Amino acid sequence: MYLYYFIKKILSKGDEFDISEVYYKNIVDMTRDIELYQKGGVPDSLDGRYELIVLHSHLFIRRLIKAGQNGKILSQKIIDILFKDFDQSLRELGAGDLSVGKKVKKMIEGYYGRASAYEEALYSDKNDLILALERNLYGTVDPSKEQIKYIVNYINNLNKQLNYTSDKKLLNKFPDINVQKSL
């Protein structure tokens, strides 16, 4: 997965380390928080992990885009890494070369569909966000009200912390965020 990008950087000569790789690694690390699975009820499966990566990526990307042209460039780099990771992950799971392209295309379409649904829901009311989460994040399970409430609070806290982070800080380093601490 993202280990590929770090090995590539180590082996490259003198290239400056790209912050987009740091962002992606940290986004993936955030999705591994056990509380999201235990308290949030997200399925601990390939689907659940994919959904969390999509959700977290979108939340960071939507904030970075607000940081101007450099934020848009950084966002695109993160998306590029995300899509390459989809490809690499499928290959590691043993998907055949002929089917990888089709599966990655479907995952990319899923990303954009979910990002659009989350974006609309975040600008709408709480019920729209809950519906988007039930359809996507919880697509294969029926979460309890407490689990949905936990995830909604998690998303709101992450958004709040991202919005309180200055553009300059966002563009120069991954923000120091502890969503669980504020829940």
Would you mind describing this structure in some detail?
- This protein is an all-alpha fold.
- The protein has one domain (18-177).
- The chain has 9 helices and no strands.
- The protein has helices spanning 3-11, 19-31, 34-38, 46-65, 69-92, 97-122, 126-135, 145-164, 167-172.
- α2 crosses α4, α4 packs antiparallel against α5 and α6 (97-122) runs antiparallel to α7.
- 25% of the residues are buried.
- The model has no long low-confidence stretch (mean pLDDT 88).
Using brief descriptors, characterize the structure shown.
mainly alpha; globular
Largest beta-sheet characterization: none
Termini separation (Å)?
29 Å
Class by alpha and beta content: mainly alpha
- Extended strand count: 0
- Number of DSSP helices? 9
Mean pLDDT: 88
Computed over alpha carbons, the radius of gyration is 16 Å
Low-confidence stretches: none
How do the SSEs run, as a string of H and E?
Answer: HHHHHHHHH
Strand content: under 5%
Q: Any idea how many domains?
A: 1
Shape: globular
Helix content: over 70%
